[in-house]
Amino acid sequence: MKVKSKGELTRQTIVDQSLQLFSVKGYYNTSIKDVLMATGLTKGGLYGHFSSKEEIWYAVYDQAVDIWRSLVFKGVRQCEDPLKRLNSFIRNDMENYLGGEVFDGGCFFLNMLVELSGQSTSMSKHILRGFVRLSHLLRLWLEEAREKSILRPDLNLREIANFIVITVNGAAALYISSRDRTIIDQTINQLHGYVENLRA
């Protein structure tokens, strides 16, 4: 395992602290001064690694994606049945990511999308591309299920994949505002039933 240099460790500290700040306070309510206080760095020390707050945000986004992936895909790819894989992903996303309170402010991606829409086109589009990529992955799993003849033939796979992504994010919004665990349980149960009804 490669040992990180002092510069790499400093950069990682900036990203770690900024991730928590953006999650709780939001991007626009977090100032460079907040980041400096959280990291103990000087402006020169900070700008030696990032040229702007927006550049920090992109690094934070990448780290948030890595954390999310480590949770939602755990054990998923070992499922040979693509519909079981889909249900496993849904459960992991709801229980381990959303219900696991991974980020202090709730779902980092949903919070950022709401805050940045209408404020930063490039940043909000960056988040939306992530949702589109997720929908595409789910569609690939559904196509695999069709090829294995375990899926009903009359289905619009793109609509199904989009519906699952929309439902998961809708549940995330409700859970963040209420912290009501029944939202997580009901979403898992309803989506699992929906996925099983897709079987041939």
Give your account of this protein's structure.
Helix 1 (6-25) packs across helix 2 and helix 8 packs antiparallel against helix 9 (181-196). The chain folds into two domains: 1-57, Arc Repressor Mutant, subunit A, CATH 1.10.10; 73-196, Orthogonal Bundle (Tetracycline Repressor, domain 2). It has helices at residues 6-25, 32-39, 43-47, 53-72, 82-98, 108-116, 121-147, 157-178, 181-196. The longest helix is centred in the C-terminal third of the chain and has 27 residues, at 121-147. With 200 residues, it is mainly α. The termini are far apart.
What's the structural blueprint in terms of helices and strands?
Elements: H1 6-25, H2 32-39, H3 43-47, H4 53-72, H5 82-98, H6 108-116, H7 121-147, H8 157-178, H9 181-196
